[in-house]
Each structure stands twice: as structure tokens, then as C-alpha cells.
Amino acid sequence: MALWFTRSRTVVLQSLKQKHAFWAATTPLRSSSSTVPFPCNSSSSSPNLFWVNGRFKSTLAMNQLDSLPFSDSDDEQCFLGGVVNQRLCNSFYCPVKIYSSVALKQALDFPGGKVTYTSEMTFIPESQEKRVPCYRVLDDNGDLLIGSHLHQMSKEVARKIYNSMVTLQVMDTIFYEAQRQGRLSFYLTSSGEEAINIASAAALTPDDVILAQYREPGVLLWRGFTLQEFTDQLYGNKGDYGKGRQMAIHYGSKKLNYVTISSPLATQLPQAVGIAYSLKMDKKDACAVAYTGDGATSEGDFHAGLNFAAVLEAPVVFICRNNGWAISTNISEQFRSDGIVVKGQAYGIRSIRVDGNDALAVYNAISAAREMAITEQRPILVEALTYRVGHHSTSDDSTKYRPLEEIEYWKTTRNPVNRFRNWIVRNGWWSDKEETELRSSVKKQVMHTIQVGEKTEKPPVADLFSDVYDVTPSNLREQEKQLREDMIKYPQDYPSDVPL
Amino acid sequence: MGTGLMRFGRRMRWVPSVSVCNIRQFSTSVCDNNPPAKSFNLYTAINQALHIALETDPRAYVFGEDVGFGGVFRCTTGLADRFGKTRVFNTPLCEQGIVGFAIGLAAMGNRAIAEIQFADYIFPAFDQLVNEAAKFRYRSGNQFNCGGLTVRAPYGAVGHGALYHSQSPEAFFCHVPGLKVVIPRSPREAKGLLLSSIRDPNPVVFFEPKWLYRLSVEEVPEHDYMLPLSEAQVIREGSDITLVGWGAQLSIMEQACIDAEKEGISCELIDLKTLIPWDKETVEASVRKTGRLLISHEAPVTGGFGAEIAASIVERCFLRLEAPVARVCGLDTPFPLVFEPLYMPTKNKVLDSIKSTVNY
């Protein structure tokens, strides 16, 4: 390893010395040529400059490199489709000269298939010249793109998708406000990501097992989780299936095949593989579907999940909502790859990048991904480009770290709900009157669930101790007994709404 | 991760020689019908348990690093041939992946029997065990559970394992409500406790004393039997002092008991077997009888599970205690290679502590 590092340093240094246009040609990711203000790091200096300027804090390291034997000769320079290794060519000799063409035609039998030989010492570039394009069907105005292959979507499904997106929007608005008023302890919206939530759910069947992160309540909504069920979880009252144990927004429903949310990031990915493996062994016509954000892709469990899925040939659809921000961490501070979609290939996973604000594109991509995952028994990775229009949560103020104009642009011009509405209105499937009625009706319903949820009593003390194990062990029984005595002795120390 | 470097027998060690039917408080029917019992070593007993687990439950799976060919300790020998590569298979070298995958598999109603090649390498899976497996049932209000999960891992000293092939990390997991931690002391115990762990409807971390894999030999019934979890066992009766331990350390403690007896000290030795949730009652009853307590484990003394036992028993038996609770444990250093014999809670350290406690 040490040797490799030494050489690769030399490669970079020498290529800079030769002033090849390599870096300029292969760093489009960091440039801001796009007119769309997607949060790429347009202000940062190019990585090679950073490397040269900032690399050698230690003079010792610089001296070590200086002492390496360089040749300034341009003779016999091997230009290797991108990266030039002048020093290695000169110091050792170009392999072309010593190997016969016969030797080059030989191939190496290696696990995974034949590997051919080449005399060109080519380093695979760190990125492709062009970023992976983003699949979309509707343009920003909701017009169908010419030549797009649209899966047949019935009027009923389209209306239900729109209805659910609006419900999610209204629900988010009211719950967010309720938290601001101090009526809820915590909330987290899906604003800007309604299309990924709802359209992906619409493309799945109820048998597909969902392992969400926490910004995918729309999947539950689509599957029939009621507004009262959402509210009861937020209040942690007796109606909460989680028995008041978890923070708000940690929903879960066995009935709806939606595994209960946990806060740690990416832990659900390897679990999704285990679930998918079980579906595979049971020969079920279903897959596991794991959602994450862009930040979670840096976690070790992301790697574990994708690698296990590929190796164990598990029917999992990984959906990454790349919304640009992990709380305040921009994706430019999260990874140096062209997003998430390119990571799939390294694991041997078929992948697609899709416009996450185009509900039709999401629907098509997830439908196809699900079909391939099940019929071919393999994982699929979907990266959906979108934007977190809201703050990370009610504990966050995102204007402290990102410009208002950026938020506004995604909230208006690139709004996924408006875009889909334009399309269904144009189809004659939706009207302004219905819009008004729907929003008003959902608002009333959510307000009603809040009134009910607030009044519903909290789970009893027994629920503090149950479910740690299948049967409560003696230490917990003792602690429960002690606590009950304390609660009677010092009632003022304990919440009055938790029944004994 | 593991380098498969285990070569046994470099240093001989006393091997427990309890026969199947001499053990008191034995709560299963192993001895009742005199079933066939041949002598087996510990890894073979584990292997038998895994065969039975896969045989008796078509939804049982065994997987981990190198388990396909039989595992670096041979515990999974023959399983893939018998039950097929879809039920017994290698995984990529990624402990958090193994445990995460196992949780998902268990959540679908399967028995997921995962192997971590060495307990020293369980830490990448710590998050999956602590934040996921342990809380899966609780956080969902019992809608979901991963009770079918069992994580097996060889643990403890082996004579030449040094920092990364010798650790005893049990105390970390004893601090996690929702997990069970089980450690057997011998082949017969290993088979019965492993089958119980696999079939227990809670996630279990099962540490196997790797030094005993080949060294410990005793009669093991060949049939399917289970030993109860959360039940400690008095494996040697005495009246002057209670000794509590688990796993391989029990054999060291038993030698100390034998030597102490020669000096007229009667020791009661308890195998805790399940560390969480642990059987306080059996330990308490014994200490009420003897008035003295000594705990011994290989893990470093500070923050070790011995501290928890000591505190609990002092709470319950303060007025009955005739001496401070003694702990003879590993040193508070990383587990060293050349210094292993210095680090270890040896027989004479235990014997000395027995004497000073009795003579306090």
C-alpha cells in the first residue's frame, strides 16, 4: 500500500508538471455550468488545486517527494487515455517494448470472468466526463417530453397520486405549525419530496416490505395509514402502535408492511437485504424497498447493504432521495462521486438516476426497478434528484446555511406537486374546484385528528416495561414495582396523563 | 477479518471433566432416560447443535465469514453439504452487514444464526446489535421483532491471540436492554444453551470460549435438548465462599476450589451461563449461605460484569457479608501477547483471593 501511495502521488505531481488538461476535463462535477441551482459546490476550488496547496503540511513529506527521480524528458511518453505516468514510463520502461503482442492477447482467468491484458497503463478516471443524465418524463411545466416512454397510468391512479401528494403537503403544513405552537414535541416535513414519497409507493404492491429512513411518511399514507394514526404516533398516545416510546415521526405498521423507523442512518439497508433474502427463499412475488437520503450513503451500512444485496442476489430496491442536504451538510461535503447513482456499478448493481420531482418519472422508474428486482432476483439502485424544501426538522433553521433564493426556486419553479397537477389538469382529470375542496377537507380532517390525539390518554406505565423482551424478566418486574410505589408517593414528579 | 490463526494445544489447560449426570440442579431430562452420550469436544457440540437447529426448522439459516467450508474453528463443518448453500453460506467480510442482514432475516420469522469470526470483530456490528436488534421489538410496540436472531462469536484467551483474537467483550452487551448474553462452559452446556438461544424469541449474543473448542471434552447427548436461559447453576457446593464465573474461566476457578479445599476452605462455584438477564436469586441464595463472594472473569476488571454482580449482591446481602466482595479479573490493559500469562486471572490469583476473603 505504501508503495502504491508513493507512486500515485508521483502520478499526480507529474501530470500537473506536464500541464495536461486532465483535471479540467474530468472535473465537471465541481463546476457550476448548469443554470439549475442544484446544490453542487460551485464555490469550492477545484480539488487538484486544493490537493497541491493543502496537501503538504509536513515539510518532510514534500522533501520525500522532491527526492524522487523525475525525468523531464517527453520522449516515449505514454498517454494513457487520461492519466500520464511519465515517471513510471521513464524509470522502468514502457511495457509495450517488452511484451509481445501474443502475450497481450492472452487473458487472465480470474474469478468473475476473463480479464484481458493491455500495454496501456490506464487509470480509470475518477469520474466520467459527463454526469449521468437524469430520467424524466414531464418538464418543469408538467408537459410530456417528446419521445418519453410513458407507462400507462390510469386516471384513477393519477388522481390518487395527486390526492395523496396534496394530503401530505397539508398534513406537513399543519403538523409543522402545531409543533411551532408547542402542541407537538417534534416534526419533520417531506416538503419538496412529495413525488418520491407518493409515486414510488404507487409503483409498489402492498406485499413489498418498506424500510424507510424518516422522510417517507407518504409511503405509509399511500398504503392507507390514516391521518389519526399519524397523529397518534406524533402524540405518543394510546393509539400509537409504538406505545409512546419513540420520538415523533417514527412511524411503523406491521399491517402495512412498513418496518418501524429507527433514527440511526442506513441501518435499514442491510436489514432490507435480510428481508429480501427471506422473500426470495419463500419465492414471494415481492421485494424489499429501502429508502435513504444522500447523507446516509456515507454510512458504513450503506456499503454493507449494497454489497450484501449484490452478492446474495437479493430482490431489494434501494431508493436514495438525493435532496442535496444532510441537515446543513451539502452533498459537496458528503462525497466526491457523481452523486449516488454511480456507486451502484461498483457493487455490481443496476442503477438509474431519476428526476425526483417528476412523479411520472419516479413511478416509471420504480415500477421497472421492482419488476427487475423480482423477476431477475437482483438489487436495483435508484437515485432520485430532489431538494429538501423544508428545514431538516423543527429543530433546524436551514436559512442559516443556505440561500433563501435556492429554497424558493425549488419551492416554486421545481415544485413536484404543481408539476403533476399541470399534467393531470391538462388531461382533464382534475379541476380547481376539486383542488379547493380537497385542501379544505384534508385541513379539517387533520385538525380534527389533532383535537382527538391531544385528548387521547398516554399509554399506561406497564408499556414502559413490556416488549424489552418477549417476557418481562425479574429485574424489570422489580423496577416496575418500585416505580409504581414512587409514582404514588411523589405524584407531582410524574406526568399526570400516564395512567398507572 | 480473522486470520484463522488458532492453533490449539500450545499450552495445556485443565479441562472440565464433569459427567453429564453428576450435575446438580440440572433442569432438563437429559439424564432421565439415559440417552446415548458420547464424548465430544466443544466445537463438535456446537456443530451438532447447528445441525439440529437446521434440521428441526426449515426457516433456520447459518451464515458468516467462511462458514461455508466449515468455518475457521470448524463449527459449521458439513452444514452446507447437508442443508444447501442457500441456508448455509459465506457472507462478505462485513460484521455490520452480517448482523444487519440477520436482523432483517429474523424479522421475517426466520431463525438467523450469524457467526462473527472472533468476538474481537463484533464492534463494527455494535450499532446493529445495540440500536437495532435490541430495540426492534420495543420501538415497534411489539409489531415487529427479531427474536430469531442469534449471533455466535468465539471469545476469550487462547494462549497466543493477543489484542485482537482474545478479548472478552461481554460487558458491553450486558448494558443493553433487549439483548441476551449467553456463555457456555463446556461441550454439553454449549449444545443445550445454543439450541435454547437459537429458539429463544429474543436476540441472543452467544460467546463461545475458543480455548475450549478442542480442549474441553465431555459426554454430550446426541439428541436434541435445550438448557434453560437465565438460570445459573451451582456446579460445586461449598459453605465458606461463593465463586461466580462463566465460560472458560470456570475451569480455572474450579482448580482454585480444589486447591482451597486442601487447605480446608469449602468453595461453592456457580456458573452464571446467562449474563443478561441474569439469575440473581441463585447467586443471592448461595451468598446468604456462605457470606462471601468472589467473581472472576477474563475481561478487564473496571466496568466488567463482575462489578454489576458485586453491586447487586451487596444491595441484597449487605448484612450477611463477612468480607468485601472480591474480583479476580483481567487487567485494565489491552489483551497482550507476551504478557498474557501476567494479564490472566490465574488459578493462584483466584486461590489467593479466596484465602484473603475467607481470612478477612
UniProtKB/TrEMBL annotation, chain A:
Keywords: Metal-binding, Mitochondrion, Oxidoreductase, Potassium, Transit peptide. Its main location: mitochondrion. GO terms for cellular component: mitochondrial matrix. The keyword Acyltransferase does not apply. Residues 163-460 form the Dehydrogenase E1 component domain. It catalyses: N(6)-[(R)-lipoyl]-L-lysyl-[protein] + 3-methyl-2-oxobutanoate + H(+) = N(6)-[(R)-S(8)-2-methylpropanoyldihydrolipoyl]-L-lysyl-[protein] + CO2. Pfam families: E1_dh. Its EC number is 1.2.4.4. It is an enzyme of class 1 (oxidoreductase). Heterotetramer of alpha and beta chains. PANTHER family: 2-OXOISOVALERATE DEHYDROGENASE SUBUNIT ALPHA, MITOCHONDRIAL. This is 3-methyl-2-oxobutanoate dehydrogenase (2-methylpropanoyl-transferring). It comes from Acer yangbiense. The lineage of its organism: Eukaryota, Viridiplantae, Streptophyta, Embryophyta, Tracheophyta.
Automatic annotation (TrEMBL), chain B:
It comes from the Eukaryota. The keyword Transit peptide applies. Residues 40-215 form the Transketolase-like pyrimidine-binding domain. It is found in: Mitochondrion matrix. GO terms for biological process: branched-chain amino acid catabolic process; response to nutrient. It holds the Pfam family Transket_pyr. SMART domains: Transket_pyr. The keyword Nucleotide-binding does not apply. It catalyses: N(6)-[(R)-lipoyl]-L-lysyl-[protein] + 3-methyl-2-oxobutanoate + H(+) = N(6)-[(R)-S(8)-2-methylpropanoyldihydrolipoyl]-L-lysyl-[protein] + CO2. Its main location: mitochondrion. One of its GO terms (molecular function) is branched-chain 2-oxo acid dehydrogenase activity. One of its GO terms (cellular component) is mitochondrial matrix. Its EC number is 1.2.4.4. Keywords: Mitochondrion, Oxidoreductase, Transit peptide. Its cofactor is thiamine diphosphate. Heterotetramer of alpha and beta chains. This is 3-methyl-2-oxobutanoate dehydrogenase (2-methylpropanoyl-transferring).
